[in-house]
Amino acid sequence: MKRVGLLGGSFNPAHQGHRQLSLAAIDALGLDELWWLVSPGNPLKDGEEMAPFEARLASAQEVARGSSIHVSDFERRSGTRFTVDTISELLRSFPEHRFAWLMGADAIAEFHRWKDWRELAAMVPIAVLPRPGYDESARAARAMGWLSGFVRPQSQAKQWTEWSAPAILFLRLPTNPTSATAKRAQDQNWHRRPRPGTTPDATDDVTPT
Predict the structure, then answer these.
(1) CA separation for the pair 187, 189 (Å, rounded)
(2) Which residues lie below 8 Å from residue 24, measured CB to CB, with a gap of 6+?
(3) Residue range 11-68, pLDDT digits in tens
(4) CA–CA dist 89, 207 (Å, integer)
(5) Is there a contact between 117 and 144 (Cβ–Cβ < 8 Å)?
(6) Most buried of the four, 14, 66, 111, 171, by CB within 10 Å?
(7) Cα–Cα nearest to 74, from 87, 60, 59
């Protein structure tokens, strides 16, 4: 059994904040691996500012290189668009693994808008990653009206494979102020520039081991 964390996102672009927080989560949860699931398109985000999938995938590969973070185009290959469907397919494809879903505190505010979010929460434990300015509002989010009864203490973080979902954990980890929005503001054409050491169509496919 592998203990695997799942972090979905646009990675538009990926940056050191993603890496720093992911590595801290790997340590806090005792993960063997963390998979970055690069989304073909987020249903809740404006597609006009979204760089091509290949550029976002390549940026994630570049940032994750040399770590226990694995970058995958699983959603594109499996044809899933919503997280609940992606997790269902992952559980079917990798029955020997134990998965935890990681999401930023900022995403909790919209979690009640996700497709079948209660069903999703009942599939795998959820670990909430801190985001500057969002931690207090995350605990007061609409979805927490239902999830509040399933909150686990951080002292049990490494025991998450023993939990029955629903189960949600708020991780207290060092944060990084870097954001994809700020990166795009600094360089709107970031996805048009060659990225050393990557190929646009390369993927670090996740396969059973």
Answers:
(1) 5
(2) 171, 173, 174
(3) 999 999 999 999 999 999 999 999 999 999 876 665 567 899 999 999 999 999 999 9
(4) 13
(5) no
(6) 14
(7) 87
